[in-house]
Specification:
alpha/beta; 7 strands
């Protein structure tokens, strides 16, 4: 009998000791040839011709590890598949957009539709042409006045199927030259007027999943330019309003309610701005009647965005993906 630091070890002098019976202080069994084998509750058999798994493999290739690895591989496959599907859908949408540029969709009829349009002059023109028009006077920047007139419209002629928000004011001068009253007027008429009028007539459209809201924004609702800071602010707001409202209708599954933003470059009735452009054929200045005809055509095609002239759309959309310095570079190049 011998006493060791790890406890008692009994060895019969002169007796043969099997590898499974011989124990040393480090806790590992030894065979007579010096090789180590782990000790378990059951005897570990090794098939001839096959090496026993190492301790490292047995430590990490557990059932839990293999299951976790399978889950991770599956997650990667799901992400890759969804990414491929996303890109395929994106390509299809781009091709459809190009196709629609070449072959526009059919135009829906507006015959018999009740239209609200914020312009008394338009009503006079309709009556002169032999049509029927009802005129109502209202300050669109005043929410209470809008609500009162909207109730009168619904009572006297019914719920409109088309609402054109085209009331607007314009100032062209340096920002600090604007008075607080002018800034409030620009924002109240150009932006809040769209919100107040749309709010009055949208509910009936949503209820019946049918109707069309048209808001006049501007190319200056896409790009900011000097001397029109409050105006750009209001028109950027209109663009944001129409885009958000269209998304809200989509999420509420009201596909029958359309929202359109119109982005004119310049209409000839704006007299205090004379752009000096290098390519005037690209940025053509439209007459009011021509602009109105193009807007109606776009509305009948249910376009979400209408650019005037139409050739500006690729340029405006492409400009949004460029860094600001590059946009400035191209903008300076376009102007003489």
């Amino acid at each position: 009998m011998e006493e060791t630091s790890g406890g008692l070890s009994v060895r019969q002098r002169g007796a043969m000791v099997s590898p499974a019976e011989e124990v040393v202080n480090d806790g590992h069994p030894h065979d007579p040839l010096g090789g180590k084998h782990s000790v378990g509750l059951q005897e570990n058999h090794v098939t001839p011709g096959h090496s026993q798994p190492t301790g490292f493999i047995r430590r990490y290739l557990t059932d839990e590890f293999i299951s976790s690895a399978k889950i991770k591989v599956w997650e990667v496959m799901v992400v890759l598949t969804s990414f491929i599907i996303l890109n395929v859908k994106a390509v299809i949408l781009l091709l459809m957009d190009v196709y629609r540029l070449i072959i526009p969709p059919g135009e829906k009829s507006l015959l018999g539709q009740l239209v609200v349009e914020e312009n008394k002059m338009t009503g006079d023109m309709i009556e002169e042409a032999g049509g029927e028009a009802h005129t109502f006077t209202c300050d669109v920047s005043d929410q209470e006045a809008v609500a009162a007139v909207a109730a009168k419209v619904r009572k006297e002629i019914g719920h409109p199927g088309y609402v054109f928000n085209n009331a607007g004011v314009y100032e062209h001068k340096p920002f600090l030259s604007h008075t607080p009253q002018e800034i409030k007027r620009l924002v109240n008429v150009n932006l809040l007027g769209n919100l107040w009028v749309t709010r009055e007539f949208l509910g009936h459209m949503i209820k019946h999943n049918r109707g069309h809201i048209i808001c006049i924004s501007s190319v200056l609702g896409y790009i900011g330019r000097s001397n029109v800071v409050p105006y750009c602010s209001s028109k950027f707001g209109v663009k944001g309003m129409t885009e958000a409202l269209a998304e809200e209708m989509r999420m509420e599954r009201r596909s029958g309610v359309r929202v359109t933003a119109v982005h004119p470059f310049l209409i000839s009735n704006i007299e205090d701005v004379a752009p000096n452009l290098k390519f005037p054929w690209l940025f053509e200045i439209l007459e009011p009647s021509d602009a109105a005809s193009r807007i109606i055509r776009g509305v009948r095609r249910s376009q979400e965005e209408i650019f005037l002239p139409e050739k500006l759309k690729p340029l405006m959309v492409f400009s949004k993906v460029l860094p600001r310095k590059l946009r400035r570079l191209f903008g300076d190049y376009m102007e003489n």
